[in-house]
Design a protein that fits this description.
450 residues, mainly alpha, 83% helix
């Protein structure tokens, strides 16, 4: 029997027990998109244009992720706090409402994105050549929107009930299927980028079925129940208020991707839009462990906060911060020493690799500052400080990155200005978030105040 009382035992052990399966689950989840990009980057005769097309799709897939985060990362910490306080009836309602919000929103997003995909892709910086690849991928990928949102948005509730290994398995089967189907559809059936999208949709469907099967089955401590599916306005507001930071973080990622692609199209052309696609892929991979550590800490922090074990909350924050700094320093060193290796995973195009080496090093400069953003953001979210979490989500991306992406190239930095905006925002936004968390939350917990 797995322990679901996160107030017992050592905090760091509880966090690691949650984080390791979560990291593996997120790695598997990441494979859905990253494996697609690896195969697409090696399409015969496509050069860099196929990756450029996929890069143009990123903002819309990020928009879908934003709404998934709105409900998933909003509902999960509320669920954990309710469980820690012994309010199982409320926790069940939170789970049921989150399911309904995800399902309804997924159909609305599908219709919106599918109908408007052509004008939107051109607005995002598509050329006639890159649009062909972007549309071939997007029109199939969008069919899996309900599967993607339910599988990703509800998986946290499995972890929050003390079953992180099961949470990992929910994505494992789909990822293995994706790995098998990708080469079959892309190369065997000659479907190209459309085949990559179809493999992803089918894989997400399998993950979704697995999540729902567990959360409606007998093993779940608090399963999804029909009586809790009716959306309650007040509860939905609570979920969205706490999930707003995750929504804004992803939403501003969408904004930054649009601004980056449009600016790169002007100053560097389709080649540099493709380079940014590769860099975003590398960032997703290298950010995954620190994201998994801080996300894995959230149910532990939230549970102990609900149980008024404030010293253990402080221990958890310290542990995730130190571990995050160590990891991001090592990841930064990897980028400095092996940029060609990272780029060659995604493309064989010599021109893209040559252009990407300098861009990659600029983009990841001072990468360790990201650990401060992750740690501060995670603590605010886990403990229900929604306003703080929302503010710092907006600060880094909307207030710093997006304006700098537009301004620096015009000040003479050219395409380098686009890649410099990220490290500047990491330093300013990350430190501001962490310092505020320390004074507004961490020190407050030392005095025994919640």
């Amino acid at each position: 029997m797995q322990s679901t009382d996160f107030s017992k035992g050592k905090v760091w052990q509880n966090i690691v027990a949650q984080a390791i399966p979560l990291i593996l689950a997120q790695l598997v989840q990441l494979l859905y998109n990253v494996v697609d990009r690896i195969y697409i980057g090696h399409l015969p005769g496509a050069d860099s244009m196929a990756l450029t097309g996929i890069g143009l799709v990123f903002p819309l897939t990020t928009l879908i992720a934003a709404f998934t985060f709105l409900f998933g990362t909003g509902g999960t910490p509320l669920f954990s706090i309710a469980r820690g306080a012994g309010q199982e009836g409320r926790a069940g309602k939170i789970l049921g409402n989150t399911f309904s919000l995800l399902l309804v929103t997924s159909f609305i997003l599908f219709l919106f994105c599918y109908v408007l995909r052509r004008p939107v892709l051109y607005l995002f910086g598509a050329s006639d050549a890159s649009y062909l690849y972007a549309d071939a991928y997007l029109r199939i990928y969008l069919l899996g929107t309900p599967f993607t949102m339910l599988a990703t948005g509800l998986n946290g509730f499995i972890n929050a009930q003390g079953f992180p290994r099961m949470g990992m398995l929910t994505t494992l089967f789909g990822a293995v299927l994706n790995l098998v189907l990708d080469p079959v559809f892309i190369f065997g059936l000659h479907m190209g980028v459309g085949g990559a999208a179809l493999a992803t949709v089918l894989s997400q469907a399998v993950s979704c079925i697995w999540v729902l099967r567990f959360l409606t089955g007998k093993r779940a401590l608090l399963p999804i129940q029909k009586k809790n599916l009716r959306i309650e306005g007040s509860l939905a507001k609570e979920i969205m208020a706490l999930g707003m930071s995750g929504f804004i973080m992803q939403g501003t990622n969408c904004l930054v991707q649009v601004v980056c692609n449009a600016t790169l199209k002007i100053y560097g052309g389709d080649l540099y839009v493709g380079v940014m696609t590769v860099i975003n892929s590398a960032r997703e991979i290298l950010s995954l462990p620190v994201s998994g550590i801080t996300n894995g800490a959230q149910p532990v922090l939230g549970y102990n906060y609900g149980a008024k074990e404030y010293d253990k909350v402080r221990q958890g924050i310290r542990f995730t911060t130190i571990l995050g700094i160590i990891y991001t320093l090592l990841a930064w060193l990897l980028v400095i020493l092996s940029p060609h290796l990272l780029l060659s995973v995604f493309t064989e195009d010599g021109a893209m690799i040559e252009a990407g080496v300098g861009a990659l090093r600029l983009y990841f400069f001072g990468f360790f500052f990201m650990s401060f953003q992750f740690s501060g953001q995670s603590a605010f979210t886990a403990l229900g400080y929604s306003r703080h979490a929302i503010f710092f989500s907006l600060l880094r991306k909307a207030v710093i990155v997006a304006p700098l992406t537009l301004l620096l190239p015009r000040l003479g930095f050219g395409v380098d200005g686009v890649f410099l905006a990220e490290p500047i925002s990491n330093a300013i936004g990350g430190l501001a978030c962490f310092v505020t968390m320390y004074f507004a939350l961490y020190r407050k917990l030392r005095s025994g105040k919640g």
